[in-house]
Design goal:
single chain; alpha/beta; 4 strands; globular
């Protein structure tokens, strides 16, 4: 059963666990190569976030696309007729096995980073972190939820790349 932004497990602790027994298979496709991001960093982000939220096994698909593609997907699946930065789908069907898709726009990451004078790779990584946080159960529809989401994004960006410049409060 596919659910969008479905709730999973509550956050376990407030520190990065990076447990060695977390085995989340990460499939990564770069359909758009506007921004470079290493597969190792993407995999580390997925493993860390999933592990911190109590997941030991699973499969996550990450796809980097262009603006026209994410616009089409946003319209088709979420009925939003505009391009966006990231879309995530929690497709978990089995207890204890995390499954989901994160689709992010390399074009948007490049444009936003250029407009603000910061690292485009970090901008794209932020989108992936945001998408993973949705998959593990966080939401951002209320102000309280959005504040927690921003705190978690800063936490993971600091851990993964040591830079939170892209984590602006007014986003």
């Amino acid at each position: 059963m596919e659910s969008i932004f479905g709730a999973q497990l509550p956050r376990i602790g407030s520190t990065i666990t990076a447990e060695p027994n977390v085995a989340i298979k990460t499939e990564i496709e770069f359909a758009c190569r506007t921004v470079k991001l290493t597969k190792a960093l993407v995999d580390r982000a997925v493993q860390t976030i999933a592990g911190d939220y109590g997941w030991k096994q699973g499969e996550i698909s990450i796809t980097i696309v262009d603006d026209p593609t994410i616009h089409r997907l946003n319209r088709e699946y979420l009925e939003h007729d505009y391009p966006t930065d990231v879309i995530s789908f929690d497709t978990t069907e089995r207890k204890g096995f995390l499954e989901g898709e994160v689709i992010a726009s390399g074009d948007t990451a490049n444009r936003i980073a250029s407009e603000n004078g910061w690292n485009a790779s970090h901008e794209l990584l932020l989108y992936l972190v945001h998408g993973m946080l949705h998959i593990v159960g966080l939401d951002d529809t209320t102000a309280t939820q959005a504040n927690r989401m921003r705190r978690e994004e800063r936490h993971y960006m600091e851990h993964l790349v040591g830079d939170v410049t892209v984590c602006q409060e007014d986003r």
